[in-house]
């Protein structure tokens, strides 16, 4: 079984600044587009997002990392116990020092973290999803939860609470935050179809494959024909609907969070454009957004943050 960290034998873990720096390095190395968006945030918020990202990445690696073959239900149970220890204010590993500090600074709830662990548990036993509703639950657990965690750091625009037209209602971008996470995960799934197939996994709903008369054998053989292109168009349209739903929540966020969130949303959505430019061949070509395209998106993201 994968050995998870026990309460540290060290008398002192790394300093708070060193812990945040390690989280920054990991985020920069493994999530380049996401990292670019964090650089547009105020320092306190971007550091918090780095700490959250690293916990999420470590959680994901339990089932997708180098030692995933040794992960069991008991591994995930232990990981959840470690999570409760961290939420109690006791870091177990160097990178946890930053997360404990983040939990003290922002109103993060433990439930999305627990839900993410349940998403990893799904990956232990499932490599197919019959319907989109089943896949949507998975997407919520492994990515919609990230939207909830991030929204707690971003904060909401308090001025909207007292606007005459608000009728005293609370500003709540929860559903939009979840939608952005789901949109991002669906984008990941479409980009990584070939990679997942090589691991024996199919995340596209089997009912969708049947709808376009495309078989599992076709997918494992990397068949790109009219059936596949129509299937991918269908899936891309679905992902874009979640991005549109997410857009309506950005204006509810604190002003200093809107630009980075718009930037991250727009940059990630461009992966879908890249899939289209590659003629939907996700088996032999990896869809990515080039540096120049990323930079060209920033002025529009800034404009949307100011006027929407």
What topology does this entry show?
Elements: H1 16-30, H2 32-38, H3 43-64, H4 73-87, H5 94-105, H6 110-125, H7 132-154, H8 174-191, H9 193-198, H10 206-211, H11 216-220, H12 226-250, H13 255-277, H14 291-307
Helix pairs in contact: 1-2, 1-3, 1-5, 2-13, 3-5, 3-6, 3-7, 4-6, 6-7, 7-8, 8-12, 8-13, 12-13, 13-14
Number of helices: 14
Distance between the termini: 50 Å
Shape: globular
Determine the mean pLDDT. Answer: 92
Instruction: Write down the Rg.
Output: 20 Å
Label the structural class: mainly alpha
Question: How many beta strands in the DSSP annotation?
Answer: 0
Characterize the main sheet.
none
Extract low-pLDDT stretches.
none
> Strand-residue fraction?
under 5%
Proportion of helical residues: 55-70%
Order of helices and strands: HHHHHHHHHHHHHH
Short description:
The chain is mostly helical and 308 residues long. The protein has 14 helices and no strands.
Care to describe what's here?
By secondary structure, the chain is mainly α. Helices cover 68% and strands 0% of the residues. The chain has helices spanning 16-30, 32-38, 43-64, 73-87, 94-105, 110-125, 132-154, 174-191, 193-198, 206-211, 216-220, 226-250, 255-277, 291-307. Helix 13 crosses helix 14 (291-307). It is globular. The N and C termini lie far apart (50 Å). The model has no long low-confidence stretch (mean pLDDT 92).
């Amino acid at each position: 079984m994968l050995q998870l960290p026990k309460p540290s034998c060290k008398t002192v873990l790394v300093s708070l600044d060193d812990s945040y720096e390690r989280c920054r390095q990991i985020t920069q190395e493994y999530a380049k587009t996401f990292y670019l968006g964090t650089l547009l945030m105020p320092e306190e918020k971007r550091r918090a997002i780095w700490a959250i990202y690293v916990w999420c990445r470590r959680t994901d690696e339990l089932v997708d990392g180098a030692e995933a073959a040794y992960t069991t239900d008991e591994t995930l149970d232990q990981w959840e116990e470690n999570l409760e220890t961290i939420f109690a204010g006791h870091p177990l590993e160097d990178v946890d020092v930053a997360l404990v500090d983040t939990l003290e600074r922002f109103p993060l709830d433990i439930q999305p973290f627990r839900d993410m662990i349940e998403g990893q548990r799904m990956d232990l036993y499932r490599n197919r999803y019959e319907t989109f509703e089943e896949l949507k639950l998975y997407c919520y657990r492994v990515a919609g939860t990230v939207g909830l965690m991030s929204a707690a750091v971003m904060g909401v625009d308090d001025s909207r609470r007292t606007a005459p037209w608000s009728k005293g209602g609370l500003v709540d971008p929860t559903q939009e935050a979840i939608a952005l996470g789901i949109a991002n995960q669906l984008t990941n799934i479409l980009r990584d179809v070939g990679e997942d197939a090589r691991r024996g996994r199919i995340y596209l709903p089997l009912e969708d494959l049947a709808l376009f008369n495309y078989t599992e054998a076709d997918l494992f053989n990397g068949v790109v024909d009219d059936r596949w292109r129509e299937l991918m168009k269908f899936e891309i349209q679905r992902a874009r609907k979640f991005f549109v739903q997410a857009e309506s929540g950005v204006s509810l966020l604190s002003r200093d969070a809107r630009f980075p969130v718009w930037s991250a949303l727009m940059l990630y959505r461009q992966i879908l454009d890249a899939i289209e430019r590659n003629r939907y061949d996700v088996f032999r070509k990896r869809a990515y957004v080039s540096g120049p395209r990323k930079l060209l998106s920033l002025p529009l993201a800034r404009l949307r943050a100011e006027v929407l």
